[in-house]
Amino acid sequence: MDIHKKLFNRDFILLWQGMAFSAFGSILYSIAIGYWVFETTGSTALMGIISSITLFMMVFIGPITGAMTDRMHRRNVLVVTDLVRGLVFLLVGYLALTKELNVTLLVIVAIISGVCGAFFSPAAASLFPDLLPKDEVVRGQSIASGTDSLIRLVGSTASGSLIVMFGVPTMILINGVCYIGSAVSELFINAIRTENQTNKISVKMIILDMKEGAKFALTAPGLSTMMIAALIINLLASGFSTLMIAYVLSQGMDMIQYGVIAGSTSLGGLVGMFVISIFKIKTEDRYMVSMGTFIFSSICIVIGLLIGSYVALIIAFFIGQLSNAIGNALFNAAFIVYTPQKKRGMLSSFMGSAAIMGSATSALLYGFFGEIVSLKLLGIVGNSLAAIPFIFIIKDKQTKKIFNLK
Q1: Taking every pair of C-alpha atoms in the chain, what is the biggest distance, in angstroms?
Q2: What is the pLDDT of residues 196-223, one digit of tens each?
Q3: Which of 4, 231, 248, 320 might form a disulfide with 258, Cβ 3.0–4.6 angstroms?
Q4: What is the CA radius of gyration of the chain?
Q5: Dist CA 302 CA 169 (whole Å)
Q6: Cβ-based neighbours of 373, under 8 Å, separated by 6 or more
Q7: Residue 307 above 90 pLDDT?
């Protein structure tokens, strides 16, 4: 009996709510740790380093874990990685309560979190479409992304006030509890086997899978262009988000105002996903809409930073993220439809590695340049340059074909 004939089936809901738990805890943790590092050390470089470690771990081992998850029980991968992260963050929260939290410990935690994330992300990306009817993948993706945006809206908006009221240790403990809750929810998902899933995984098999995945990613028409674009764009712009707390505080605002700005960004993402789920964009228009919304998003952020006022930042980041969410939804749906099931984990890792490599390097660069250059100037220059790759690939016929598949 096929239990995945409808959109809101049991397995989809279990994965959906599990990812919601972990997303809520994660957003509180990332903001709390960013605040703790900046308040404790005053260093944007350390903020960049801490933020980039997890990302670099996912880049370096992502292709390997992606190939492995294609041959593993993906549900079990989700449960174990969330459980490990939950226990680690509970321990870190306890150490923070006892005043024993330090930068070295955060580095170790970031490494562990990166390894877990490198397994979790391709497993989730590969499993998610299998829990939905084929004609509901885009809607399911939009609902999951919209939920993530809603959670980020609530978490980021409330984070400033929560940190002021309860402190950093409590935020870390909440993150640990959320990951445990996520693992429990995912535990009840029905195991779904893939075509090439086996109980025995060999080094030779993983290497062959990696070679096959790399060959497909680098030679498939349009896919290599998407990977390069994701790398460059994230390199140029994403690092600013890791220093957003430092930027807001340096502008004379407080953590509560930061929470409102971050909340407006998340609200923009939520509205964007709502728009894409309500209004059906014609297949032949998806590529131009996706590229256009990415460019418009960069323009909005630049305008907001140029004006620099509290209200301008709220409006600019809301509209910018709304536009970006629409572009990402179309981009991700096109990639899922284009990719064969048995290669989703591997290709998801390659695509993710390209984007994450850009984000990790960007976090480092922004952190170090933030020590000597105005954060406002960094944000303006980075987001301005980020629009350029989209302009270059907007007429690429091979990439456009990926978006036109039905």
Answers
A1: 62
A2: 555 566 666 666 766 766 676 666 666 7
A3: 248
A4: 20
A5: 35
A6: none
A7: yes
Burial 390-401 (b: 16+ CB within 10 A, else e): beebbebeebbe
- Show the tokens assigned to 191: 């195991």
Contact, 301 vs 316, CB < 8 A?
yes
Distance CA 149, CA 271 (A): 9
Q: Distance between CA 31 and CA 47 in Å, rounded?
A: 11
Q: Which two tokens stand for residue 168?
A: 């950093």
Token representation of residue 288:
């131009």
Q: Where are the domains of the chain?
A: 10-403
Q: Which residues contact 271 (CB under 8 A, 6 or more apart)?
A: 318, 322, 325
Question: Could you tell me the CA-to-CA distances from 62 to 107, 269, 393 in Å, in that order?
Answer: 19, 26, 26
- Find tokens 């993710």 and name the residue: 352
Q: Is pLDDT of 382 > 80?
A: yes
pTM: 0.70
Q: How far apart are CA 109 and CA 12, in angstroms?
A: 30
> What is the CB-side half-sphere exposure of residue 381 using CA atoms within 13 A?
11
**Collapsed DSSP state (helix, strand, coil) of residue 221:** coil
d(CA 92, CA 162): 18
pLDDT of residue 220: 67
Extract the tokens encoding 405.
């598949």
In tens, the pLDDT along 317-370 reads: 999 999 988 888 787 777 666 666 666 656 666 666 667 777 888 888 888 898
CA distances from 113 to 67, 110, 263 (A): 19, 5, 25
Number of helices (H) and strands (E) in the chain: give both, helices first. Answer: 17, 0
Count of beta carbons in the 10 Å neighbourhood of residue 211: 12
Superfamily of domain 10-403: MFS general substrate transporter like domains (1.20.1250.20)
Alpha-carbon distances of 242 from 30, 129, 245, 370, rounded to whole Å? 9, 30, 8, 11
The per-residue b/e assignment along 172-198, b for 16 or more CB within 10 angstroms, e otherwise, is bbbbbebbbbbbbbbeebeeeebeebe
What is the Cα–Cα distance from 266 to 281, expressed in whole angstroms? 23
Classified as helix, coil or strand, 339 is coil
